Structure formats: C-alpha cells, structure tokens
Amino acid sequence: xxxxxxxxxxxxxxxxxxxxxxxxxxxxxxxxxxxxxxxxxxxxxxxxxxxxxxxxxxxxxxxxxxxxxxxxxxxxxxxxxxxxxxxxxxxxxxxxxxxxxxxxxxxxxxxxxxxxxxxxxxxxxxxxxxxxxxxxxxxxxxxxxxxxxxxxxxxxxxxxxxxxxxxxxxxxxxxxxxxxxxxxxxxxxxxxxxxxxxxxxxxxxxx
Length: 207
Known about the structure:
Layout: H1 3-19, H2 27-47, H3 53-73, E1 95-100, H4 113-128, E2 133-139, H5 146-166, E3 174-178, H6 191-197, E4 199-205
Helix pairs in contact: 1-2, 1-3, 2-3
C-alpha cells in the first residue's frame, strides 16, 4: 500500500478514536471511517497525477467522514409499534359516544333502536381495548325540577350500562353517574339547545 495512503488511514483512525473520547466505542465507529478513508484515498490516488501526502490524506479524511455518516444513518431508532398495528387506546377524558335525548323514549330511560345501534359501536370499542374503562354520564335539560332531572339522568346512565353488559361488556369497567341539569353544553332557552343538553356521554375514565 502506498505509504501516503497508510498515513491517511492512520490519521483517520486517530480522528475516529478522538471523536469517540469519553464514549463507548462500537465497531462501526472505527470500521466505517477506515473503510471510507481507504476508498477516499484510493479515489484520489487513482484519479490524480500527484502523489502528495496532503491530497491523499484529504481524500482519506473525506472518505472517513462519509463512511461514519452512512453507518450512523442506519442506527436511527425504529419507532415502536403495537403488535396488532392498532392505534393507541383513547386517552382519559375522551368522549367516544354521545346519545342524545332522541335515543331514549320520551321522558323515560328506555333506549331506542337507534340508540342501541350507537351503543353496539361502543361495545365493539371496549372489546378491542380491554383496558379501557368508561364513565357513563347522564344529563338532562333544565325543564322540570332538579330532583326529577337528577333521577332521570341516573336511570338513563344505568340503562346504558345494562345494555352494554348485555352485549358482553364487563360491568366493572362501566361507571354510571347522573348529573341532572347541572352540566349543560348549550343554552336551555331554545329547543335546539335543550335537545343538546339531553344526552348520555360515554367518556374514557381512569378508574
């Protein structure tokens, strides 16, 4: 091997070792720069009419840098994916389904066919995510007394839980709660607003 190429390789080895000072050295930290240095110096020696040490060493240094970058490009961490490829479970506080008042018989806790269809989707979500727990939260509009609305919201929340259990959901993962008319999401001064307030929300819970 040309003595100038050897000088370039030794120089690159020294640079690679210096660059790893204080760090754990991996085989690629030395091997990749050396391979790149040999290739760089070889290209300079083959394509140039000069035999100057500076030119050869320069080619070796450039080749070493390229070799180092190529090796470490392949060491980028690979994102960790779920085995089944499914998206992550919904976060706590996520509302997965909301049943409006039209999904219940008027002034009752009986669930309509349309409401049951929406709950079937919720049951499928719980089956796919066995760690997810839901808070089943009943709400009413402001028409009527507070005690009556509180009772109605509780009955509807419990009716939803009972239906989900009938579909195979674990009742321990479902917590019914009634809020009556205390948590409106719209004005109670219009029919449209009151319709939005009459609802049962299924919200991901921490416990």
